[in-house]
Design goal:
Length: 225
């Protein structure tokens, strides 16, 4: 009797593996109303404070910060976190893709994507997506997750790196960014939102460069008006 998996079984097994990790990510309930609070930015030399609101439409509005670059940076971080909290079914996001198991290493099982997003890769370990290798807007982005927070309703990445590459030459076009995120629930049962994000780069000797810290406090859920 042949105990080797058939190609079809391998595909089905890989799809279920990736689907389970995808559905294990923490996302907001569809009735998410948005929230607001105070915000600050610092690079270690200067600190800028203001306030913000993130609406149900995920549009972030930052007030009391006149520095256009800092204002945009804060709103961009809020939007970037929020867009990953939107709940979409696996079929909505990956219904036109196929998945095949590749090699295994310390980051977990390789998931090779075919179909609509052919060329993308993921790795899954312990029901967590530990690596993302995606082609977005003509660039290749590679994300490695090092640590996560288990909310009880899915996981949130709290320590990870990201870097952009040229999809053809595979040469990096931006320096690698290292992220550390902290989250807390607005109420006893959520939704979980970002309270702190630090971003930095590292020199070839490992020293920290260009560190920025975004902080969010006095957070309150928005109600329908």
């Amino acid at each position: 009797m042949d105990f080797m998996l058939t190609n079809e079984a391998k595909v089905n097994s890989c799809t279920e593996l990736f689907k389970s990790a995808y559905e294990n990510r923490y996302t907001w309930e569809p009735n998410f109303l948005g929230y607001a609070g105070k915000c600050s930015w610092t690079d270690g030399q200067r600190e800028i404070n203001g306030s913000f609101s993130l609406g149900q439409d995920l549009r972030a509005i930052v007030k009391e910060i006149d520095d256009e670059q800092i204002n945009k940076a804060i709103s961009s971080q809020l939007w970037e976190v929020a867009i990953h909290r939107v709940r979409r079914s696996f079929k909505q996001t990956h219904g036109k893709n196929t998945f095949t198991l590749g090699e295994q290493n310390e980051l977990g099982s390789e998931v090779i994507v075919g179909g609509k997003n052919e060329g993308d890769l993921y790795r899954v370990k312990n029901n967590i997506v530990t690596m993302v290798h995606r082609h977005i807007h003509g660039n290749l982005i590679v994300i490695h997750t090092e640590d996560v927070l288990n909310t009880g309703e899915g996981y949130l990445s709290k320590s990870y790196s990201s870097q952009y590459f040229d999809p053809i030459s595979k040469k990096h076009i931006k320096e690698k960014n290292f992220y550390k995120d902290e989250f807390l629930p607005l109420e006893k049962e959520g939704p979980w939102v970002l309270v702190s994000r630090s971003i930095h780069q590292e020199s070839s000797k490992g020293s920290i460069l260009n560190k920025q810290v975004f902080s969010f406090s006095d957070l309150k859920s928005l109600n329908h008006r």
